[in-house]
Amino acid sequence: MKRLVLLAAAGAALLPALAFAALPATDAVLKGAAFIKTVQRPDGGYAESPGQSIDAIIAVRAAGYDPRLDVQNGKTPADWLIANAPAITSPASAAKAALGAKALGLDPKNVGGTNLIAVAQAGYDAETGAYADNAFSQSVAILGLACTGNQPGAKAADNLKAAAVQGGGWGFGGFADPDTTAIAIQALLAAGVPRTDEAISKGLAWLKANQGNDGGWGYDPAESNTSSTAFAIQALLALGEDPESAAYTKNGVTPVQYLLSQQLPDGSFTGYDPAFAANQVVPALAGRTYCNAPETPITRTRPAAQPTPTPQPTTPAASPTARATTPAPRPPATGDSAGPASPAGGELGLALAGFALLAAGGAAAALARRRG
Predict the structure, then answer these.
(1) Is Signal one of the keywords UniProt gives this record (predicted)?
(2) Which side of the chain, N or C, has fewer Cβ within a 10 Å radius?
């Protein structure tokens, strides 16, 4: 009996350490959500970039807050989306905005008179199954429809499967990247493709093979970044995988612990841009996928007083545990253009020197996610 008591006490002593890295990582999520509130703009949105503003709306909801209650200059994120919805014409941008509308408790088919679902569906090519000319935007279009209760096009999943590159991942320019691979896996699952499907199995295998030694993911396995790691965690959660298991522990560090190590004192995270990174990381640390983050139960209320925004350096400082001294490439982006997205752009200067082909893929992915 005494032995059992001692074992129980020993187990209890371990609980705080285990809870520190367990999902949801509540303390980090609350700090990240508080930071997002500090960057809210006078028009009610959270960023100049529409796609980033929608990411923030979804992140606030993923943290358990009602984004409709975030007010700046008398405007809420719902006011912002209603004002901007008429300008959205590309399928991926409309689909992503539909997820934002869901997070705000709005009807995606009637956002101030704009039917975002109809906009997304109107851009579908029934012959090819394409909503977009790149895998990331194709995935977002599928997710935005499926995760708001609308059926994606009949050939949309097949189109996305066919876009996989050698090695089983998805990306740009013939090279896979973790962001696009993770979002593609989630899109296929949302479209009803079974977890055992060969395309999904190969995508998961690619993620496993390309995890960094610090527990994270990046465009280069030797240079992990927070946004890529957050997307990978969401894919693992959607697959029913445990991102804190031994299978995803590198040098004693899990992907969740990697993200926690990158949180800055103001609640943001290191990355291409601290606010951009916070929008990606908060849902992952809250244990929410890209699909279910907008429907997170509202269980929290913002504190009356918000912290003063911390000025952000042009180049985010790396945490003591971060290996990279160069800012991460901008992750892929959707939701920032009224018209169709193009995977090409002039952001190759953001790439890491010596990795030209990899950087080209990262820059293309960046533009796709930002634009939609």
Answers:
(1) yes
(2) N
Q: What is the pLDDT along the chain (372 residues), one digit of tens a residue?
A: 333 333 333 333 333 333 345 899 999 999 999 999 999 999 999 999 999 999 999 999 999 999 999 999 999 999 999 999 999 999 999 999 999 999 999 999 999 999 999 999 999 999 999 999 999 999 999 999 999 999 999 999 999 999 999 999 999 999 999 999 999 999 999 999 999 999 999 999 999 999 999 999 999 888 999 999 999 999 999 999 999 999 999 999 999 999 999 999 999 999 989 999 999 999 999 999 999 999 999 999 998 654 455 544 443 333 333 333 345 566 677 766 544 443 332 222 222 222 333 444 454 454 454 444
Q: How far is CA 287 from CA 240, 261, 264, 283, 363, in A?
A: 11, 17, 20, 6, 28
What residue ranges define each of the domains in the chain, with the CATH number in brackets?
23-297+315-371 (1.50.10.20)
208: enclosing H helix or E strand: helix 198-209
Q: What is the DSSP letter of 289?
A: -
What DSSP string runs through 41-81? -TTS-S-SSHHHHHHHHHHHHHTT--GGG--BTTB-HHHHH
DSSP 8-state code for residue 218: E
Q: Any idea how long the chain is?
A: 372
Q: In 10 A of CB 369, how many CB atoms? A: 32
What is this structure's pTM? 0.83
Amino acid occupying residue 10: A
Query: Nearest Cα to 321, choosing from 267, 269, 266?
Result: 269
